[in-house]
Amino acid sequence: MFEIDAKGKHFRDLNAEVREAVDKGEKEISLKNVNGQYYIATGLCGKLDITVEGVPGNDLSAFMDGPTVTIKSNAQDNIANTMNAGKIIIHGNAGDVLGYGMRGGKLHIRGDVGYRVGIHMKGAKRQSSTIIAGGTAGDFFGEYMAGGVLILLGLDSEENAPIVGDYLGTGMHGGAIYIRGPVEQKYCGAEVGVMETNEEDAKILKKLLKEYCEDLDLDLDMVMSRPFKKLIPVSSRPYGNLYSY
Amino acid sequence: MNHDFQKDIAGCGLTGLISKKRNRVSGGIIAKSLTLMNDRGNGLGAGYAAYGIYPDFADFYAFHIMYDAQSARFSVEEYIKENFHVEKIEEIPTSPVPEIAINPLLVRYFISPLKEKITGPEGEEDFVVNAIMKINSEIDAAYVFSSGKNMGAFKGVGNPSVIAEFFRLEEYEGHIWTAHTRFPTNTPGWWGGAHPFTLLDWSIVHNGEISSYGINKRYLEMFGYKLSLLTDTEVVAYLFDLLIRRHGLDVETACTILAAPFWKDIDDMDPDEKEAVTALRQTYSSALLNGPFSLLFGHKNGLVGINDRIKLRPLVAATHNDMVYMASEESAIREICPEPDTVWAPRAGEPVIVTLDD
Amino acid sequence: MFKSQALPEYRATIDTDKCIRCKRCIQNCGWSVYSWGGDRVQIETSKCVSCLRCYHYCPTEAIEILKEETTYKPNAYWSYNHIRNIKRQAETGGIPLMGMGSDREGIILFDHLLLDACQVTNPSIDPLREPMELQTYLGKKPSKLEFKHDKKTGKRKLTTKMPPNLKLTAPIIFSPMSYGSISLNAQKVLARTAKECGILMNTGEGGLHEDLKPYTSNIIVQVASGRFGVNPEYLNAGVAVEIKIGQGAKPGIGGHLPGEKIPLEVAKTRMIPVGTDALSPAPQHDIYSIEDLRQLIYALKEATNYKPVSVKIATVHNVAAIASGIVRAGADIVYLDGFRGGTGAAPGIIRDHLGIPIEHALAAVDDRLRQEGIRNEASIIAAGGIRSAADAAKAIALGADAVAIGSAALQTMGCTMCGKCYTGNCSWGITTQRPELTARLDPEVYAVRLSNLIRAWVHELMEVLGALGVNAIESLRGSRERLRGIGLDAQTLDILGVKPVGR
User: Fold this and answer.
1) Which long-range contacts (CB under 8 A, 24 or more apart) does B332-339 make?
2) What is the mean pLDDT of residues C303-331?
3) Nearest CA to C219 among C293, C301, C310?
4) Which domain holds residue B201?
5) Rounded CA separation C181/C204 (Å)
């Protein structure tokens, strides 16, 4: 384990140190006393384990392609921006615009997330993205969602308490959102259909949540103990009638 | 009509704190929080506002004035002496810092209006506001950048730590602080363009751009405000002044106007609230702040944080004992409060209103 | 037969190879251009107005309507229209009448205004995925509000009494067009659409026909100088009352609906005998000054238990002061009808030479009301040449609360702006009372087309707001900072209160 003390360091210096360590072949890097430094693990590739102690700054793991990043506290905005592969585990809360355009990899958050989470996340057969948030979410959850899987658990909320904001899945045209709590159609985007989960969904959820629970030391049975709603786009071209000839 | 102005635009970071029990905190603390967000600014503007810093002159309006020319000082002081009792005049203490080569002349005045000058229906505060409008719009090279009682703004061109050092901020102690680092993309060389913007004891720091600036400005002009500072943040300070001081609305209602709920949500409100908010949106439609913003609004009784109604700019809040912190980034809070009791992100348009204990 | 020296404007042609002698053109033409010659269709081309009804209904595409190429010797000073009008006047001794708004060439300010958009420093907003509000209230607003707070809960309760306001889902309404000037079916299209889209139509001064009663929650009733169809029931039927002082196409003059256009239904609705002329005096003879207007405004408010009152004027030179007077007289809405405003019939000399464009007028009025601190006292409706959602957006940015559209609405019913409304022969069944023509205009079918237009403009306005980075129409209203003028002189820019492009 290669340790770097981030205390008082500007992000340029800190991230240069990280890249230097990676270039030297370090595979496990621990960043201590982080507070607010931007761009940690941004653009990093390959098999790496990076642990962050303290609150990392914005644009954590942007464009990241492979590494696993573990945050032991809260994290800020714009995490996993256009991420390609790898995993981010956040033990606390995270902010707005998470996983913007994320093409692959996993973002596992224990706590609450902010606005516009999973915005335009993507997924295809060969490569797909997953975001799982354990708490509640703000408005525009899954906005423009094009693929992948977005899961919201509401682990700290009462059963039947609302756990997600307004404009849920607005602009959604691919992928699936699973909400472990109530979903009102009036708070969903016009393109979104809300349905009950079936056995196939249960299999997908179990597989994804097993890994999530292992990462965050949670009990899978407890997590699976409440019903999920599934949201999918009901039309892949919801705006067909919008334009004149 | 004054439409031939060049509007300023800027991006930013902000932070603020309040001790509900009025424990006074050194300016060095808030500077430390702000300095963490250096990269949200570009070194071309930073500033601070503090409440409770002038206890010995608490009954006087503390005018902070910047002058770009000595002649302006003569004109202003002549005007002030004609209209105000002057308790004290002094240059604002500064320290030389290598990053600041040129700075305006900075002078503060502890003054109170001469009673016999206040004629007609207007009150003392209107008189003071009119005096500020007059100096700012009619006397070249003079700008009142702070005017409240027992509070003051300190701002200029430079990054957060430079401005703090220049104004010797650690020598001030206040129970409310707000601070701002700026990323201006236009008219960057003017000290007056930095935040906070203040009027009487209102102070505003603001991140984002007010896309509705054009109509907000014209609305304020209807009420006699002269918008001279070339930036959208100015409208926020004046809107709070209009809504709270002149129209007598409470802080929460002012926030309902500035970041109004959507009609579809108003439809779901209980009848009284629906009636109230519908009337607010009808009556104060030109005061709606549209576009991305988060802002901190300081006043003599407390601190308010609010962001726009679809949350296009960040705002994080935290508490620790009697302290409440609000900032663009959680790390800026943790820099000065490593272990807060609670940390949360306020929802879009939902104000965090903190009031000082009596 | 007398042959006019006024040249025909169009040449109607039929390709005899394609023609299958179905005679649909003969049936469809309201102007009797076509007649049956025994073995083929005969054409009297001088009667053609290029309304294109025959073209659209010819099943074999055999018909072409061409611009008549025979013309007077081109003269840069004596235009075709000058010469042709002199011929017409020489032959008749009369005033040339015109239908629709002025088509005069000249600077069109809307086309010299450009809207802003967001790049980087503030984000644009996606109108399809995120909220976008066009909801608009027309009427007087207080300048400030007062509340009381519950001592226990702290909950606020409004104590200010709100003046009545008209709720619109979008800042677009239909301009007044009376039954008589247009057909009942055309009015039904407007009424159905207003209801469907949550906006308003306006009866014009021809009274309210029985058939429109289901739509009265979306109707403004008009009171004009002829007082046709006005009684207490009428005044209270709609959501607001409008006093019509003038019309953009014919400021300062009255109207004259000839007796032959007053069949039974029109007569009943206007409350006049069948076949008598319906004269609208030039002024309202109870309004010779501003205090008289106030008297009528309050008479209508008393008669309606204080419904909002709109005052419609043509925009003339001194429009700002006039509008200020109207607001101070107690109007809730000021309806400004600009130089390009439409009409069924107006003397050409009036239509093309009197009044000022809506863009200047709107800017001047909005400025004036703000300078006087009374902009909240009334809403402003801008009308007179709103051709598109772009014009609407620019008018709103200049200061309008809403725009009114007439010609654009009629175009969805088939109107091609041929401008011969005053003949009563409209082949599309719009500006006619001939039953065989009006029957063509199926309100149900055409209300769908008009609703489509409103929906399309709503989408366009949302796209503009999104590009401007605002999500409520009130953030565009009067926000002239978001407009720039291109190719305009300094004085015009000053009047409009907009900067030139590049500044």
Assistant:
1) B332/A36, B332/B13, B332/B15, B332/B33, B332/B34, B332/B36, B332/B37, B333/B15, B333/B33, B334/A35, B334/A36, B334/A54, B334/A55, B335/A35, B335/A36, B335/B32, B335/B33, B335/B36, B336/B17, B336/B29, B336/B30, B336/B32, B336/B33
2) 97
3) C310
4) 10-57+150-355
5) 9
| Tokens describing residue B19 | 């001790």
Is it the case that residue B4 has pLDDT exceeding 50?
Answer: no
Best B2, B7, B215 member to test C by mutation, with max C CBs in 10 Å, is B215
pLDDT reading at B41 higher than 90: no
CATH number of the domain encompassing residue A136: 2.160.20.60
Contacts of B212 in chain C (CB under 8 A): 470, 475, 479
B174 occurs within a structural domain: yes
Total domains, chain B: 1
User: Would residue A222 count as lying in a domain?
Assistant: yes
Report the C-alpha gap between C391 and C109 in whole angstroms. Answer: 10
Mean pLDDT of chain C: 95
Among A81, A151, A167, A153, CA closest to A120: A81
Domain annotation for chain C: domains and CATH numbers: 10-94 (3.30.70.20), 166-392+399-474 (3.20.20.70)
Note whether residue A239 is domain-resident. no
Residue found under tokens 């026909």: C209
pLDDT of B187: 56
Per annotation, catalytic residue among B10, B12, B128, B324: B12
CB within 8 A of B119, min separation 6: which ones?
none
d(CA A104, CA B339): 34
Q: Structural domain of residue A198, as residue ranges? A: 2-233
pTM over cut 0.90:
yes
Q: Which chain C residues contact residue A170 at CB under 8 A?
A: 129-130
pLDDT digits (tens, 9 = 90+) for C259-295: 878 899 999 999 999 988 888 898 888 888 898 999 9
CA–CA separation, A136 and B274 (whole Å): 27
Place of tokens 């770009």: B68
Q: Which of C125, C128, C449, C451 to mutate to test the interface with A (most CBs of A within 10 A)?
A: C128
From A94's Cα to the closest Cα of chain B, the distance in A is: 9
The single residue listed with the structure tokens 């977005």 is A150
B201 and B299 Cβ atoms separated by less than 8 Å: yes
Tokens of A197: 């989960």
Dihedral angle computed from the Cα positions of residues C43, C47, C51 and C53, in that order, rounded to the nearest 10 degrees = -40
Report if residue B106 sits inside a domain: no
Q: Is the ipTM of this complex over 0.95?
A: no
C126 touches chain A (CB under 8 A): yes
Q: Rounded to an integer, what distance in angstroms lies between the CA atom of residue C266 and that of residue C442? A: 19
- Specify the 3-state DSSP secondary structure of B73: helix
Q: From CA C148, how far away is CA B240, in angstroms rounded?
A: 19
How many residues make up chain A in this entry? 245
In a domain, A241, yes or no: no
Taking 90 as the threshold, does the pLDDT of residue C409 lie above it? yes
User: At B11, is the pLDDT very low, low, confident or very high (cuts 50, 70, 90)?
Assistant: low
Contact A36 B334 (CB under 8 A): yes
Integer-rounded Cα Rg, in Å, for chain C is 24
Please name the helix (run of DSSP H) or strand (run of DSSP E) that holds residue B82, with its range, or none: helix B70-83
